[in-house]
Amino acid sequence: MQIKPRQQLLDIWRATARISFQDEKWVPGGRDGSNSISDAEQLLCIMAPATEIPLFRLDQPDTVTDDVLDALRPLGDNLQIPQRLLRILTEYIERYTAEDGTPLFSGGSYFQSYVPGEEISPEQRDLDVVDSFSISVNLMLAIVGFTKIFRQVVTRPKLLEQVELLERMANRRLSAAMAGLLRSFTVNVFTADSSDGQELIRTVNQERRPTHQVVDELREGLRQINARLRDDVTIGSGAAEGSELDNPNRLFECGWSWGVVRDAPKIETTADVGVQRDGVAQNAPYLYFTTVALDAIQALSSERTRLLGLLDTEQARLAQSLQLRFELTRSYWATIATFGSGRWPLEDLPWRATDGREADYYSQLVSGMVLQNMLSARASNANMRRVADVLAELANRGRLTRRSTEPETAIAVHYPGLHFPLEGSESAGGPRLQWTVTDMSPTLFRRTLTLAGMSTDGPTRSSLIDLSDAIWHHLSLRIIRHGDDHGLWDWPAGVFTYVREGVTQVSWYYTKRVVDCLVTAANIINDPPLRSEVLLQIASDLLNEADHLYDRELLNGTTTRGETLRLELQRIGSELSRARSVVRERPGVAVAVAEEVLRKLDRLSAARRADSGMGPQ
């Protein structure tokens, strides 16, 4: 792997601290302005590595490394950094909390008018959006984990009060974000002959079989998911569709809308979540918002969340309801994407959604849900190779690994980005809003790294690492090279030279996603290396021979032929024990040690035979 996540993350920290902390104050903002999402993304550029990679931890001042202190020098020394982070994080939560204490999850400046030139009303900018719920889950979990560990080294009463205040505020916002995600879940039910039904059937019918056969098989494949949606989804939105799902002639899709869905019931909870505002979002899933919601829910059930006990009893109850939706949604889209016995719908690029829109970006989003399902289902290497081929083709089609020499439509997903309307937003008074995504490159990079970490097939893993290196090269060309925000992302003109350069301000939306990729890469590097069964067999055979020759030297009295030979044989015994201890986890190391041991034993045997007057054996 050519990427060096430690150095890259330190460079990002250095640039983030330089432009974000000025005159003793944290300065939110960036290319897209300040809002609840962008400001959280800016903070997570610091907090994500600090809470997910041990070498970057900031919650234990005595263990902070010198290179980390150097990167965050504008924030102070090892004692000042966590204290200033307490203040900065508290200010963020206060900024997005209403006067009555209700947490705010508005899209703000990320909302755009679907019709260029039309003015967005203040009420529309204040609409809640799933992206804000999801990013808040990640940031609040990072904050609660940070405070739980930092409080153990705090001795000053006033500082301890600040820690406890931040933890209470973070827990409140976390609970409210979880409630918002529960109210944004949706099940869209439709007939097979509707426009939605016809699009779904066209997607899954890769073998061009009779429609009625495909519909029957699809209903059978989704039967268990259908039953659990009817019987187990009882909290928040999505549950109200149960009667529609009872109809055997209906098809459905599930996931997350762009915000709290219209007529979503309020969550009955003992947690303090503030006022639960009425929803206006379309009662249908959006692939983008579904994937960001799934990523946030995955964080709620992560090993770190469990080990540190970051959720209280009521939050654990809400998380369990979200986990159910996670499993059903992941299983649904994985079933659709891999339906049939021939070519998968996922392999039929680009993915076409039930609303008729199609894009390679959607294929990338669906591939992420397939990977999440593979993590739980222990997929075969053959199926992983099929997904790897899809990712490689997406990289080619998106001009990440192929040269683009003149303007072409494939570049639009990178700049100015893929736009899609937010149905229902116009009911808040104003034009229909749209959402813009430009993160195909870092998202594909992360998918590639994730699949490489999952694969146990050497050639597949190697090709995925090569692909990740190629995508990283593309990303490295998009680093801002000049101006105050140099060292961060995104500058598409750096790789697509014909793209209008535009502004060179940092995009926290994009930079945060690159940080996520680097954290993923660091975790993969920290994982044990891929174990080869071939190497394991070779190592076992070499060790068996080495053990036999070692025992023969002991039997033939090499230890009595001087102190030097005795010590050499002891060292050989220690090396053999070392090789035996690592053979299952690192067979390659065991092979290397065994070969060196065999060479040493051969020299001892030759010396012993020469001393005895015997010729070579």
Give an overview of the whole structure.
With 617 residues, the chain is mainly alpha-helical. The chain has three domains: 5-112 and 127-189 and 253-263 and 278-526, Glycosyltransferase; 190-252, no CATH class; 533-611, no CATH class. The chain contains 22 helices and nine strands. The chain has helices at 5-20, 36-52, 66-71, 80-95, 122-125, 130-150, 157-184, 195-204, 211-221, 223-231, 242-245, 287-300, 303-308, 313-337, 360-377, 381-397, 440-454, 458-476, 508-526, 533-555, 563-582, 587-611, and strands at residues 21-22, 25-26, 112-113, 185-191, 250-256, 351-352, 358-359, 418-422, 433-437. The strands form four sheets. Strands 3-9-8 form a three-stranded antiparallel beta sheet, with no helix packed on it. A hairpin with a 5-residue loop joins strand 6 and strand 7. The radius of gyration is 28 Å and the shape is globular. It starts with a helix and ends in a 6-residue tail after the last helix. The relative contact order is 0.10. The mean pLDDT is 91.
Question: Summary?
Answer:
With 617 residues, the protein is mostly helical. The chain has helices at residues 5-20, 36-52, 66-71, 80-95, 122-125, 130-150, 157-184, 195-204, 211-221, 223-231, 242-245, 287-300, 303-308, 313-337, 360-377, 381-397, 440-454, 458-476, 508-526, 533-555, 563-582, 587-611, and strands spanning 21-22, 25-26, 112-113, 185-191, 250-256, 351-352, 358-359, 418-422, 433-437.
